[in-house]
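Deliverable D4.2, example record:
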Amino acid sequence: MPHSLRRWLRLAAGLLAGAVTALAELLLTIAAGPWLIATPARPRTGRPRTDHTRARRPRARRPLYAASARLTRLEQRRMHAFYGTPPAGPAAGPAAGPRTLRYVAARWAVGLLGGLVLGTAAVGALYTSTLLWVWFLPDLNYPLTAAGSGLAGIFLLFLAAQAVYGVAALDASTARRFLGPSHESLLHHRIGELAATRAGVVEAVNDERRRIERDLHDGVQQRLVVLGMLIGRARRAGDRDPAKAAELLRQAHEESRQALTELREVAWRVYPTSLDEEGLRAALETVAERSTLPVDVAYELTQPLPEAQRTVAYFVASEAVTNAIKHSGAARITIRLTTHEAEDIARLTVTDDGHGGADPAAGGLTGLARRVAALDGRFAVDSPPGGPTTITAELPCA
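Output generated by the structure prediction step:
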């Protein structure tokens, strides 16, 4: 069975279950509506509310809140089972009662709409079937009418099939609207995320700067110091000992080659030119070639990534391979870059068969998590004791 047909049948089953629960929600809304109108939250008189009225009215609302909470939990399980959507919000807590009651009062109409769409689909299928059984009737007085009914049934069935997707999306958005966080809460959460990712990016840049400084100080700079000393000794030997001077110059030439190699290594770790010239696939293959362990690269993207996502994906793969070589004791590493279920998300996984136990809070992995978070991506480390270790980075590309 094709995936699209399975998905349509699953959504249709969800709408059918939602139409059944909509009847109970309609009854609860009818029961709660007049009561809420007759007992508003604030009294119409100017008399202050006593402790007795404050306690009595919440107790009177409790059965309605409890029933709406149960129906809300049922709807959340239904949408998660048939739509694959996570729960839009909790159905518990001090403020959950009014929220769930308002949600139930709005959801029943969507549920009945879903039932109407499914009924329309059934009518369309019934009319479409005339194109099949009409040929078995020996004496048919109106063949053109029957054929027209079949064609109209196909059109009606097509419209109803498309409406299933729309009503399912409306069902999920209704739950997010009434049960999810408010717009102000989302803005505050987003501001907090941006502040945290900004601080993380600044820290990641500082860590990268310190790493480059260490590489230059401990590697290239030491080579250049030795090179200067060898050239100075060769100059002092001069004509007094030509053989010694020639040997010192040979050593100086070798040190200059080593210094140039290490300088290229530092530049390559900062940003490889192949990433811009040949693309991410070539850069990942270069990581595999330069590795001391066997590295398999599976590049399954059909479209090139944007520049920012391409850079982050490269550095995550490169650093993960370096960490695996240094700490995991692995014999083989696999890099896989593919498209997630949503076409606008690229998923990078780096897996090694080492002994596991990687600490997600370690410095290198924390830096990678900051790079991914700066692009609103998700970063995860799965490294149970005994292995294997899998590092996953999901990067939105839209």
